[in-house]
Amino acid sequence: MSRAERFALAACAIASVVLRSIAFFHYRFDSDEPQHLHVAWGWTAGLVQYRDYFDNHAPLFHLLTAPLLAFLGERSNILFYMRAAMLPLFLIVIVCTYLLVERLYAQRVALWSAVLLSLFPTFFLKSLEYRNDNLWNALWMIALIVVISAPPSPGRWFVAGLLLGCALTVSMKTTLLGVTVAGAGVITRYALRDRTRVVAPAIAAAAGFVIIPAIVAGYFASIGALPNLVYCVITFNAVLEKMRPDLGLLGVAGIVFVAWRYRDSDIRRMFCAMTVSLFCVTLLTFWILISPRDLLPIMPIGAMFLVAAFERFDGRVVICVVTAVVFIGLLFYYANRFQNHTEEFVTMINQVLRLTRPGEPLMDIKGETIYRKRPFYYIFETITRLEINRRFIRDTVPEAVVSARCHVAQADGPLFPPRAREFLNANFMDLGRLRASGQWIQPDGAFSIAVPGPYVAVNERGEASGSLDGSTYTGARELAAGTHRFVRAENERVAVIWARAFERGFSPFHLQDRNFRYRGRHSHSKRYR
Question: How is residue 30 annotated by DSSP?
Answer without folding.
Answer: P
